[in-house]
Input
Amino acid sequence: MHIIDTILRREEFVESPPILVDIGASGAIHQKWRRIAPYAICIAFDADDREMGFAVHESKGYRKLYVFNRIVADQPTALAPFHLTKSPYCSSLLRPDQDSLAEWAFGGLFDVDRVADLEVVTLKSVLDDLGISKVDWFKTDSQGTDLRLFRSLGDDIVKRIILAEFEPGIMNAYENEDKLSSLMVFMGDRPFWMSGLVIKGSQRIRRQTFEALFSPFRRRLLGQLMKTAPGWGEVTYINAFSDSADYLDKRDYLLGWIIAVIERHLGFALDIALRGANRFSDPVFEEMRKHTLRCIRWEYRKIPLYLMRRFVAALTGIAGAAG
Output
């Protein structure tokens, strides 16, 4: 049995399974969660399905899955206007900033087809109703409200979250949206470090020009070929597990190590194993240390192949220049 399965079958996780929150769920298991899903409870919010209420599933790849077909907001309210856009992936509680979007090739995706008053829930109220007092892995793609939803959990929950994933904006896509810059300031004042950042975007060309001069087929093709400008980011933060964070218990250290391994931050996983061994009298941390070192040594084996590829590429370049 793999060490991750051995750890997740321990009493700590039988009594308190990993809690995963997915806002803007696509319906499929988040790729990174596949390794821990059978042991975890997932709370998913799917705004595209307008059926009210929620469903509880005992399978679907999770130990338990709660699917809420509601809009999630940071403030309690009965109904809120939801802007249904041409692309369902751009629909939001926030109004699209059409003046700014007019300067971008993909601006048409944010055209509002209609505004619907939909029932709203807060994340904290859902957790309270389920009797859940913590979140381990937080993932959101809420189209402009990621930071306010995260903050609405309250400091006691936030500081114990092990990993958080966001998709904040860089450009002006929505009115009064949460930007990457604000998220970085907020997280910089809390016990997290940025473990990943992928910048996505669109082409800076006025939508009117783009649509007037190019056919739909050519617009799709140019969308793949033309240089893009930063529009939003996919950013990940991991809890720092600082020595002063005495509120993190053995379960947190065990799960933190698992998540660091899943994220392939093996150096940090090694640090967690060593810190856990110092804090807790449990031989499992020594096994975690040994496993992490084996993973790191496995990475060593890739070095000769990497160097060979670099050598062949250099030779190919020299041959091409000589020809």
